Amino acid sequence: MAVLTVGLAQMDIVLGEPEQNTMALQALAADARGQQVDLLVLPELWSTGYMLERADSLACELGGGASAAMAEAARTYGLAIVGSVLARQARGVANTAVFYEPDGSLRCSYSKLHLFGLMQEDQFLVPGDAAPVLDTRWGKAGLAICYDLRFPELFRSYAVRGAGLVVMPSEWPYPRLGHWRTLVQARAIENQCFMVACNRVGHDRASHFCGHSMVVDPWGEVLVEAGDEPGLFVAQLDLDVVAAVRSRMSVLSDRRPDVYGAGG
């Protein structure tokens, strides 16, 4: 049985204060180590929050700044870490999810494809242009970030390329908690994959974030769901369930992309 223990680091992010948020990361990583977590997932823009008017000064090169703090925590506590940071790229600053291995090496990065206009991402950030499937020691996985959840084509593309796990940092606000819970479960059910979705809590200048970080299995069962308070929430994933569910109900092979296109 291939078992993955994930920890959802549901944080109340201090806006525009990477040092304070890094202290919270260190405490959460220490807690995760104590609970034998294999993979710790942080919220979207965990080190800065949505202070996008300062995106250029708050952004880091991959391997520096907030991403270096993730690498250090991964090495120190011997666990893999995923989280989203403001990352400087050739075309501008992107909202980028990074996956660090327990030795502190960068396994993969993914820049948010769909920019969320209601939080002014389209004014300050550049979108990504790739959706890689990464090979992990637990099998194939994909990365997504928050607003991406509303675009099922992305998750289907991961599933048809063999991913049985999608990890998604988020800053999803009230009053759309119902959308969050429904869509996380829907993406898991329709793609017969595990959804590991870590959301933030607390307030910034404009939004109240709803938390309810979730892990949902390929049959749509909720393995863990947080409330709207900070904390570390842990779940064990039996990854053999992916193959069992896909074998039992052949959704992916029964698709008809010849009729409705490859994205369906």
Explain what this protein looks like in three dimensions.
- With 264 residues, the protein is α/β, with parallel strands linked by helices.
- Helix content is 28%, strand content 28%.
- It has eight helices and 14 strands.
- Strand 7 (139-143), helix 5 and strand 8 form a beta-alpha-beta unit.
- Helix 1 packs parallel to helix 3 (65-77).
- It is globular and about 50 Å long.
- The model has no long low-confidence stretch (mean pLDDT 97).
Indicate the overall shape: globular
Structural class: alpha/beta
How many runs of DSSP E, i.e. beta strands? Answer: 14
Poorly predicted sequence stretches spanning 5 or more consecutive residues: none
Number of helices: 8
Biggest beta sheet summary: 6 strands, mixed
Mean pLDDT rating: 97
Radius of gyration from CA coordinates: 17 Å
- How are strands sequenced across the largest beta sheet? 5-4-3-2-1-14
Blueprint of the fold:
Blueprint: E1 3-10, H1 18-34, E2 39-41, H2 55-58, H3 65-77, E3 80-89, E4 92-100, E5 106-111, H4 121-124, E6 134-136, E7 139-143, H5 152-160, E8 165-169, H6 177-191, E9 194-198, E10 201-203, E11 208-210, E12 214-216, E13 222-225, E14 231-238, H7 240-248, H8 257-260
Helix pairs in contact: 1-3
